[in-house]
User: Fold these one by one.
Assistant:
Number 1:
Amino acid sequence: MVDTEDKGKIVVVKGISQYNVLNFAAEQMAKSFEGCGYRVAVLDGRSVLGKEAEILSQEMNDNGKFIFIFNPIFYDTMVNKHVSLFDNLGCPVFTYLVDSPYYHIERLEHVNSHKIYLGCVDYNHVTYINRYHANIRNAMFLPHFGFRAPVDIPYGQREIDLYFPGSYADPQKRAKDIDELPDVLCHIARVLIPELLSDKKLTLDRALTKYLDSIKFDYEANDIPELIYALVCVDQYIRDYHRHSVITEILNAGISLTVSGAGWSELKEQYPQYLNILSEEGMDIEENLTVIANSKILLNVLPTFQNGTHERVFTAMMNGCICLTNDNHFFKVNFEENKEIVYYDIDNLKRLPGIIQDILDQPAKAVGIAEGGRQRIQGEYGFDNLAKQILSFMGCEK
């Protein structure tokens, strides 16, 4: 019997994940790497705390190709005062950054190894990393993935008309966080917010540098991440503001909306007739997938990703659900409106209730859009294709 070639091992590290989304995704990535012929070791990051260097080194010594992680897990783990864990290990690490880098600035600044590779879900995130994190030399665009539910319910038999899986926060509470910033930062935040609300193509870092240039403030490129980190509540406010505006427009129109996630009890008192909360704690991703598969329309409100992707969009489409989302450059270029996806204008929400009602009133057209989205999304945005892209980027596959 001839031994098959050992293509090597990939070490997949899981961490803390809201609603188990990223850990479930890590398990899917592990299966896809195995499908490409690699051995895979899946580690729970919480179980190796204090022994990270020893365990990861041991795994990588077994013909390890690279370590795979979602978001910068262990970037700020130090083996001594001056050397980070991954710099000390000196082995290739692929980080799939599915959030905005603004939320991980402190971690991103700790590594200096040229063997750190970063996959970003927005082209603007790649630009930001290249411009302001010179310590990270290898950044690429890598779109989000989509999850497939274990059930496939025919569109006409689905019980939920409109579903939004996500949390809710009153933007006014976030505004209070901004009020509590030091005076200078509070002033900058108050200048940036209307700029970002009026120009959907503007990123927080670009808005900040634009303002600093306008007042002729002398700064270095490495000053920007520190300022962004101090002003991340601005990005959070913009997200909360848009989500609140979309949700309340729908509820004020008397359209029933099913939701799951934290914070919804705040709105339940105002809209007891139209807001259906499945879970105020949120649901595990696998449980959530069964709800998506039983929904006709999945509502999405993009975070501040002006030229990138989101998992909710792809998951909706993979499960034969119409994705109703605000647009950005990536989606407008890559997905055909009213054939694969349905867009609404975040600056003209008065039309949103009518768009929803049109979908519900025209089931034959809705089925066509849902199926068009499913066909478009299959393969290209699945885990198997992502694994191949990562392996190619890491030099493991041609």
Number 2:
Amino acid sequence: MRLFAYVVALLSLALIVPEVCAAQDDTSAPVQAAPPQQEGLIGLPKETQAMLERLRKKVERKAEMTEFLSRAAGLFREGEALYQKGDRRAAEAKFDLARQTLLSVEEEVFYEPGVHTYFLQLSREIAALTETSTLSPASGNQIATASNMHVQRFIKYFQGQGREGVRVAFNRLGQYEPMMRKIFQEEGVPEDLIFVGLVESAYNPYAQSVAGAKGIWQFVRETGRRYGLKTGEFDERHDPEKSTRAAARYLRDLYEMFGDWHLALAAYNAGEQRILRIIKKTGIKDFWQMSQRRLLPEETINYVPAVLAAMAVGKQRFELKPAMRMAKSAQAPPQSRARRSDTQQYRER
């Protein structure tokens, strides 16, 4: 029976897709007519109907993605031709239209791997052609912590009411820190960004949000897959090493998009499409101005200062005198055996 159900499903899908396409071309069809896909589902088990409906939506989304990608590619080629003819202004207008074509899609479509990857590729090709290549993410290996009242408020919290949570988080960080710094160096992003993990999860590799984000870096399923993390039975978002590599690459891509670490961090929290749309609509390219004008979600308005405060507190931690660090180590009770790292525990599961 299961095999028969799949055969019926495949045959029905073959009938449904042409009917959907024909219905889109037939503008004379009565408004009250029942959708063809509903007629094709009559008599099928509910489970099969649900599966076919999911397949139909998938086909429609793929068609939508193809249309937008084709349109953006066409606009880029037009801009490229104009640029080679010396009409820089017209070329830049075409390039802008190409980018906006991809930004105009629904959020769910924009973050599909094909669309998002092409958006990055398109941005790089435009930058290379116009000789406006993006800055090096690791330039200076420092991120301005913007010592304003918002950042200071979070520093005070981390050093006061939230002090115990910070202590626990930094204890966890101890086993990952060399690995994280090495990966961030290899991926060309500032090492200060390891302190994003304090705000995201307090360095708990098994942290999970109500929205389904998981791991130290709180990747949602789609973003994790986009950066090479498997999310099946063994969810690699929980793997400290693999997820750190993915986070470094994602942060690098965000910096490449915005050329500013504050905006890159805002995009890490709110999504790059939202930040790019705000820039397009208002012309504002400064996080603090966006924040002051309440153009961002409240969570993001607080997120960036919190991360900057975490960086300040984290770096302050390394400025302790060696003697004080040694004294703290001496106070720690001896352990009877070494604790396996969370990476080892994950891989042994």
Number 3:
Amino acid sequence: MLLELFGEIFDRYVFWLMGKHRFSLRTPPDLLERLAELEPAGELRAAVNVGAVQALAIDPPASSPELKVPFRRWRCASPTGDDEVRGLLFGDQRARRGLLYVHGWLQPDYTGFAELAAYHVCRGTAVWCLELPHHLTRTPPGELSGARFISGDVGETLQSFIRGLAEVGVLLALLRQRHDEVLSLGHSLGGLLTGLHACLAAEPQHRAALLTPAVDPLGILAQSPLTTNVRADVLAQGISYRQLEPILRPVNLLTYRPRCPASSILLVAARSDQVIPLPLQRRLRDAWGCRYHEARTGHLGVMVPLALFRRPVGLWRRIVDHLCPLDN
């Protein structure tokens, strides 16, 4: 009970800090009419199956006081013709097994994840971290990391989902060319995108872990304290949830079923989650029939045990063992 209360307080405090930042975009007046004529589901399916790009540049090894773990920066051309795709690589790029990590919305850095990456590397896994559009080093000058990904501009938000999913698909296709086995781990927004890949890709990843994935973006927009400013921007324009429902339905995980075996997916929910309601996570568990675990933390607290203990305990031990079992 104490851990769950701490998780709720931690979530609310961090979201209050995030709420002090505001980045407002507005939907062009005729956009909803134009979006109604589009087929986002088709665009998402096409994006996730775009295939691998040919050029992947990997920089020499580097280090930083924040990460404390050696890494390399990598980059490749964008599948949608926008700014280049980039991220970090931990471990040997020629390892038999490759793991893609996709971060959550508003991710400011990789400090919490570097510790987990080190344990995967010790198990002979190369860990590739993807920086989603408008996040981390791809953040436009003067903006908050990720703020432009989901905003009051419904059209740009939808395009962000399509671009993000395309980049997940491109990188996983690249990893298949380099590794015998490909895995994925996504948190929140990253969990949504890796989950969509498991449902829409012609060749989904071998094993995946979804940590408190953003199951239903419309429901999160309507209810989450994290989206308070975005919700205010959208509603101030006279846009109703009824109008948004057909636009955002294609990025709702409950709309699909995974193409890979259900046992290959581990879904992790958080009992005190202030972003993704626990009933939504349980609905996804029941619909997919996948492996499931409930952590006694909040939405952000799933990363805390790793940072505190510097080793995978409890929840993280389950995640590591699911993705990279020692006997595999």
Number 4:
Amino acid sequence: MISLAAFASLATTVAGRSAPTVDMRAVGLMEDAKDGSAVAFAELYDCYVDRVYAFVYRRVGDRALAEDLTADVFTRMLKRIDTYSFTGADPIAWLLTIARNRVHDHFRSGRFRLEHASDTVGSDMVDGAPSPAAAAERSAVAAEVRAALTLLKPEHAEVLHLRFIEDLSVTETAELLGRREGAVRALQHRALRSLAKHVDMGMVTS
């Protein structure tokens, strides 16, 4: 069962995390790509392809399919590069929006469906952890949360997945979901309360 301490750790991590620094070099590359620079686009691909692939793979659960969809994401990115404008969020938020829509198109569904995640939590789940012990603790919490998310409403699961698993800021999450930041914070609050109820009811087993 997810412990109350683990849940408290999640709530603190998600609600209290400061916004990540925007990669202004990537923003510059986006502008250069808009101007037709193939070199800039190639650098953006190298910078973001692993993260986009991981984002897609968690949703489709098939490596070959994830590779195909990831390639489609960057094709769409290239076609839509003229629509990009800097809003204060890192370019990854815009790119993950394209990825999210591509996955939705694949499943021919307008609603998010949280896929059952792998039992193994990758190193990206503990990026920036201050120590191996802290990394192991966060990894364990993340694995428990992944199981709990399958019990929530799709919109609740998605906002927690983006904020905690994908490590996006409120600004980035709002841009990806097409919502205002205040609405994202409210949705996150309701999602955490819902998750707490599942934990208290003992619906998640280890």
